[in-house]
Amino acid sequence: MKTSPIIPEDFSASVIAVPPLARHMDLSLNQGENTELIHHLETNGIRTFVYGGNANFYHLPVTEYQATLEFLAGVASANSWIIPSAGPDYGRLKDQADILRELNFPAVMVLPQIQYITPTGVEVGLRQFAERSRCPLLIYLKSEEYMSPGMVGRLVDEGLVCGVKYAIERTDTKQDDYLRELLECMDCRNVVSGMGERPAIIHMRDFQLSGFTSGSACIAPKTANQFLEALKIKAYDRAENLRCAFLPLEDLRDTIGPVRVLHDAVTFSGIANMGPMLPMLSNLESEHKSRVQAVVNQLIGIDNKC
């Protein structure tokens, strides 16, 4: 695992994969299948991994946290970033900070929480977590009610935040006053589009965000890499054609459930067997499996031609 401090150029150097986490039937960590997925993505040019919602870190027991992080750090190549998640609640952040302080991760993403928070309370909690863990934060913004742009900017100025994963959904992605205000408070090169391929063109073209996160890249890494390269050279027509390859799977993730569809889609791809999901989530019901399998096959066919 790469451990040097993250700089702005690192956010655009690779597609930022957000993989699921494989488990055995007894729900213990399946090291072999997780290794298969990581190495498959590394072989196909992906070098940045963020383990968060898709990996179901929301329900990862704190008692398993250190062992899980040590495994991920040990299995990645020396040129790959591994960014784990923590939180979302203050109690978990406090316990996980002590574990992170003893490890050497380049950053940690804080999982967002919507209820039982105030923006002022979040700012205080994240500051305490960053100081206690001694680990730079990747803030995951999914709601305007989480923090104001100015609050994020203060934490950036204090050297506690290395980046933002921006994932606030808009009816019209181009119309986003909150994002524009955020970019007045911090360098756009430290903000990445955090909702997969769907809004990535507008985010990178119109707002100059540096890169994007992708769950579907776990199934089609070569296509995702070509999409990123097209965006970096401003070949937007080609980028749009590549983006369309991901939309059938993204549509199913939006309608059925983004985390569970991706989890089982990776299994259906044959790349790695993700196994069962930790409660309180569950694998796909039988009526959804054939639809997901069909779009996975389609996406793999496109990726094989890249």
Give a summary of the structure in a few sentences.
By secondary structure, the protein is of the alpha/beta class. Helix content is 47%, strand content 9%. The strands form two sheets. It has a five-stranded parallel beta sheet.
Describe the protein in words.
By secondary structure, the chain is α/β, with parallel strands linked by helices. It has one domain (8-304): TIM Barrel (Alpha-Beta Barrel). It contains eleven helices and nine strands. The chain has a five-stranded parallel sheet. A four-stranded parallel sheet has the order 3-2-1-9, with no helix packed on it. Helix 3 runs parallel beside helix 4, helix 8 packs across helix 9 and helix 10 packs across helix 11. The chain is globular and about 45 Å long. The two termini are 27 Å apart.
